Every structure is written in C-alpha cells, then in structure tokens.
Amino acid sequence: MNIVEKSVPGYERVLCAEEAASGYRGIIAVHSTVRGPGVGGTRFWNYNSLDDAIQDALRLSRGMTYKNALAELPCGGGKSIILGDNKTAEREKIFRAHGRFVESLHGQYITAEDVGTSPADMEFVRRETNHVAGLQDRSGDPSPRTAWGVFRAMQAAARHCWGNDDLSGKTVAVQGCGHVGHHLAGELHRAGAKLIVTDVDEERVRATASAYKATAVAPEEIYSAQADVFAPCALGGIINDQTIPQLRVQIVNGGANNQLLEPRHGDMLEQHGILYSPDYAANAGGIISGSCIEMMGWDVPRMLAKLDAIYDTLLKIFAIAEREHIPTYKAADKLAEERLVRVA
Which of 20, 118, 122, 277 is the most exposed place for a label (fewest CB within 10 A)? Predict the structure, then answer.
C-alpha cells in the first residue's frame, strides 16, 4: 500500500493511500487528539475529485473533534473516506485494505461506520486492525441512537422556540430517508408529529411514507415545504444561499453533518429568524453510543442517560447564543472550545 502524508495547517495528520491489488483509494484525516484518539466513521462515496474528498474529510474530522468535545467524550476528532462506488460487491477486499490503512496509524485514529458503510463492513476492517468500533456484536448500527439524539435535540429546540418540548401536531420536513432519517421519522410519528419526507431514492421514500403516514414530495420541493421544522438527514452543505430563502420553518434540526455550506449561512438563518440546532451537537448519538459501550465499557442504561444529555447540551447552546447575542453555531463552537481547553 502506498501512503502519502500531506501537511495541512490545523490538522495533526492527513494521509492518502492507494493499493493497486485491491483497487483501494482512501483518506484519513486526524484533526485533534487533545481529548483522546481521533474517532470518526468511514464514509464511502464517489467524489468528483480527490481534492473534493480531502476537503470533505477535513470538514468532517474537525466536526468530530467538536462533536466529541461537546459530548464530553474521551475522544478526539478524525474521519476517513473510501473513494469509489459504495455499491461494489468487492467489499471484503476494499474494507480489509482500509483496515490496513487504519492500522498504519497505530491507534491514533479509530474508525466506525458512516455514509455508505455498515457494521458488516466494519467486521472486514476488524480482520486487519483492532482500531474499529460500531461492530455487529458490540454497539452495532448507530443509526437508531443517532436518530434518538436528533429527536431529543429537536425537543430542546421546540422548548426554546415555543416554550415546551411537545412535538405533537407539529409538521417536520425530513430530507433523507436513509437509516437516520427513517428512524427519526419513526420517533416523530410516535410523538404525534406530521411528516413530509423526501429522498433521491424513491424506494426509501415509499417505505418511510408508508410506515409513518408521511406526505412524500420531490427532493427539490422539501425546502419550500410549509412546516415547523426542517430536518436535513442526507449529505451536507444543503443550508446555503439558494435554500435558505425557500425555507418556511422556524427550526432547522437534523442528522446530517456539515449542514451549513459556509459558516455565514448560520448567520443567515439567524437573520431569517430560524433557530438552528448545530448539527454536531444534535447528531452525536451514534458516537456517544459507540464510545460509551465499546471504548468506555458502560452498560446500556448509563449510555442512554448520556444520550439524553444531548437535550441539555442544546439548551446550553441556545442559552449562550441568547446571552451573548451570537448565532447558535458560534455558541456551539464556544462551548466545545471551552471543553477542549479544559483538558489541554
């Protein structure tokens, strides 16, 4: 395997790897190990270019540093990417190569599943390294717990916005009906919310709409849907100059990473009177469940209590934003940075 390390200011390590025998191409970005080893999942995606993939890895790994700090976990921030078609049948070959790449960092980075990967894929990674979480016989699929954390964050946003956290009768527009989006729709349905859903995969939309009595709309229609909450649960960068003017909601709260295309879009949401739940605070459920069970050895009740604390974290963020007259994304960064300094 050919591994090349790149120097990127503000990041501890950024490496690119290729292996001709398996056809593997991957990236690992370690942003910070101040709180512990860099922890973050493996994303398998077909990027337009290597530079695009590296930029995504950088954004995601930094996000993991802040996510883990906000959740007060003994973890730093990292992320890895496999470039290519995530529908490939050659999964063992690709993921074992990825495991060898992870192993080359000797524990500085710990991986898990993410977009385009699964706990079953992590079992292949485990054959080459012990530095992997989200395994089938341990914490397993993090999606239900990520969705629960997003739901609790949404309840906190509702309390801040409307005075109570009851979501019954509220309309939520869910973008993305993959693992997290589908589970989130289920939680909202059980809470009595009305649902509008979309996805680029028509089968996923049909399944979610059928299971939870949701109204399905075309992907481009979700931004202008009349709703109380917009829940982005697909890929990032979807809060931007084009979409913000279309939004007809009071809250943005979802499971996707890097929802703001640029930081200034957090300011734009504020200017439009829309309350934003910073994504890395709201969607920390997966990393909390995996870290607590697999790295810290907690039992499930203790882990679930930690998961529920996402509600309190969001309330703290909203309080900081209100007190200091800053947008919520800046308030979340401020709280995370305080927790990073505390252990430095």
Answer: 20
